[in-house]
Amino acid sequence: MGAQQVADRFAELYGAPPEGVWAAPGRVNLIGEHTDYNDGFVMPFALPHQAVAAVSRRTDGVLRLHSADVEGGITELRLDGLAPGGDHDWTAYPAGVVWALREAGHEVTGADVHLASTVPTGAGLSSSAALEVVIALALNDLYDLGLKGWRLARLCQRAENVYVGAPTGIMDQTASACCEAGHALFLDTRDLSQRQIPFDLAAEGLRLLVVDTQVKHAHSGGEYGKRRAGCEKGAALLGVDALRDIPYDGLDAALARLGDEADVVPLVRHVVTENERVERTVALLRAGDPRAIGPVLTEGHASLRDDFRISCPELDLVVDTALAGGALGARMTGGGFGGSAIVLAEAADVDTLTKSVEEAFAAAGFTAPRVFEAVPSAGARRLV
Ligand code: GAF
């Protein structure tokens, strides 16, 4: 999606060129799933797929929104009428960001926006965070708000949690705002400290495939919230602020203390072991051994499937088929209940693995998956 194309369309829609054009990517989470709302570790990287926004300021308290990806014309909203709750369509993401900025005291007096995104929606690849971050960055630059990195991500998360009503953590918005090309982002979601970890698989003869199962998911639905509530119950029963506070070598003792809290035990086990898997992955990558992260990814999938119980038959089929075909590791990525899986493989095996996953889906009677290679790409930035 070219910046010029988006700017040209903006000019057609609104009668004048935009003040600027910005981009914010979707993400793949390499490892660290459902740890972000437990103050834990995550390790996403940015996709080349991105939301692009052409934006100009307005001074009359009006927000006009248009998307190249959705049927329909321009949506016009009054800023003083923006309020959380109610039924929302795609406009809730940009409108929620404007609401969150104003709620935080930032003076935003209106905007004209034209958006176009290449991030697949409902695929666990953070299409909504990309929309939020691209708008936040554009308004930050145009209104000179002085927001950057995780501060920008926090506001976007607030838009998602309160305005849209999805009780998500902060990983996706931080990934979109802060990732760098050729790197994965090691993020501590407790203090939001970050480290860029070099992650150039191509140089090692490796590839990371994304398999979008085409099973759509949504986090404003109840299951995500139930997992989050279960984790918070676990932390309360254990007398800690968040499950992050349970060290890996204290897991057995913590599980013993939980006794017969059967609904909470597997959730706690997942979060504590997943944090350890993120730390192990970072250590292996820093030691220059990317092939060795394969089994760690696969362990992560088993934990999400068996303990956190958020996989689905399509995701499990990707993982099982890829591993049987010689992949180094595979797991679901993102919030779960559908969406995408990732497969770490030798470059030479990519075609065969892709074919075997496609054949397995056809044999199971599932909708054909969409398979593409993920290259760690740039985070949000101004294009024009
Ligand atoms: C979704 C959420 F938006 C993230 O905050 C995170 O919890 C993820 O699911 C699971 O790791 O993408």
TrEMBL record:
It catalyses: alpha-D-galactose + ATP = alpha-D-galactose 1-phosphate + ADP + H(+). It comes from the Bacteria. ATP binds at residues 67, 122-128. It holds the Pfam family GalKase_gal_bdg. Residues 9-57 form the Galactokinase N-terminal domain. The active site is at 172 (proton acceptor). Belongs to the GHMP kinase family. GalK subfamily. This is Galactokinase. It comes from Streptomyces achromogenes. The gene is galK.
